[in-house]
Specification:
The chain is an alpha/beta fold. Helices cover 39% and strands 15% of the residues.
Length: 399
């Protein structure tokens, strides 16, 4: 069977998503990439992430591929009824609005499951139900209150991570929950509600540091100030001001490190005989290593470390990944159509899900949708006539 003949694992599954920003759309994208028909319900004015500037400019094209778009005004009684009819055809409904928002339109789990007990409902929030669930959450909010910003920044300077880690992972955990619920539904015949949240995701991310304290009695230091478990495990500024991360995390790697760089004196020095000894002497050893490595370019060190099988990493900016030879060779990037903004109609390469199925990456089957691109076709599939659709438009129930 040719690769083109292979079915994706979620083909035949219909997902209706009422989502915006990053967390909810990520959940839908994961399901869409695996073959589900994902219908994005947008308001009359369209998803606001279509027009964000700055760090939000990539949100819509990144997290909304392989989806359809329908525009429905949920605040219109007729629009809410259309949305309920659409959800009645779905296997999965996903939403990431404030608690109580969907109940106003009869689109909450209790309402939809009463009509369809097989429905799986993914609710993606800032907090799981509890004392904080009324708060407005953002990725940065939960990073600050969940210990991640403290661990990322230097002491006294909490710093959010350099991407939307909780939004993306929170959406991913929501999708994992949906997959588990689908398996259980196949056994019991009943759906269920799945809840995933930013704050709890963040706590999971720092859980190792919590347990470090529980086990050792010592609080984890922020990463820039931590005592490394490894003697050589750092960023080095080398020739021409370039930077590169180099590591030697075992005694065997330390020996190789010294051999390939010609540091026979350091290899023979009894003070550096094992990793723990080297860690205790980092204040002495690291300045000496930095001085010696300044003679090399980053490219020279890359060649040496790659040949020797030692850990290394160039310091790469996100925009430089477009030209990464590994991503290009392995199909890790795929063209997506830009739907909005000054470059609408052009294409750009976007990162695919970071796994393969049967040796293949999950690609782009449908471009990120134009605003309301599938409204008419989807309404017609619900049995609405052209005249009824026109009437809904006149009442501003759909667009």
């Amino acid at each position: 069977m040719n690769n083109s003949d292979k079915k994706l694992p979620l083909e035949g599954l219909r997902v209706v998503e009422f989502t915006h920003m990053v967390m909810g759309p990520t959940c839908g994208m994961v399901l869409a990439d695996m073959g589900a028909e994902v219908i994005k319900v947008e308001p009359i004015e369209g998803d606001r992430t279509r027009h964000l500037l700055g760090s939000g400019a990539g949100f819509f094209p990144m997290f909304n591929r392989n989806k359809k778009s329908i525009q429905i005004n949920l605040q219109s009684p007729e629009g809410a009824e259309v949305a309920r009819r659409l959800c009645a055809t779905a296997d999965v409904v996903a939403e990431n609005f404030k608690p109580g928002s969907m109940a106003k339109y009869g689109l909450d789990y209790a309402s939809l499951s009463a009509a369809n007990p097989k429905i799986i409902y993914a609710s993606l929030k800032g907090f799981l139900p509890g004392p904080y669930d009324h708060r407005t959450a953002l990725d940065e909010v939960v990073q600050m209150m969940g210990g991640l910003a403290y661990m990322t920044g230097r002491p006294g300077d909490p710093l959010r991570a350099g991407t939307s880690v909780n939004d993306i992972m929170g959406g991913m955990f929501g999708a994992i929950g949906v997959l588990g619920a689908l398996i259980q539904r196949g056994i019991t015949g009943r759906g269920q509600e799945i809840q995933s949240a930013l704050f709890e995701n963040n706590v999971f991310l720092v859980g190792q540091h919590m347990l470090q304290y529980a086990i050792t009695g010592k609080a984890a230091e922020p990463m820039p100030n931590r005592i490394s478990a490894w003697a050589v495990y750092d960023v080095f500024t080398v020739k021409n001001g370039e930077q590169i991360f180099l590591a030697a995390v075992s005694d065997a790697q330390w020996a190789t490190f010294c051999d390939v760089l010609g540091f026979a004196d350091l290899k023979a020095d009894p003070r550096y005989s094992n990793n723990n000894a080297r860690v205790s002497l980092r204040d002495v050893m690291m300045p000496e290593l930095r001085r010696r490595l300044e003679a090399y370019t980053a490219a020279e060190l890359t060649a040496i470390f790659e040949k020797a099988g030692l850990p290394f990493a160039p310091i790469v900016k996100p925009e430089e990944l477009f030209d990464d030879p590994h991503l290009q060779a392995t199909g890790g990037l795929a063209d997506v159509r830009l739907t909005d903004g000054p470059k609408a109609g052009q294409t750009a390469r976007a990162a695919l899900l970071p796994f393969t199925m049967d040796g293949q990456r999950l690609g782009v089957r449908q471009q990120p949708p134009q605003q309301g691109e599938n409204t008419d076709a989807l309404l017609q599939s619900l049995g609405l006539s052209d005249a009824e659709i026109d009437q809904l438009r006149q009442r501003q129930a759909v667009a």
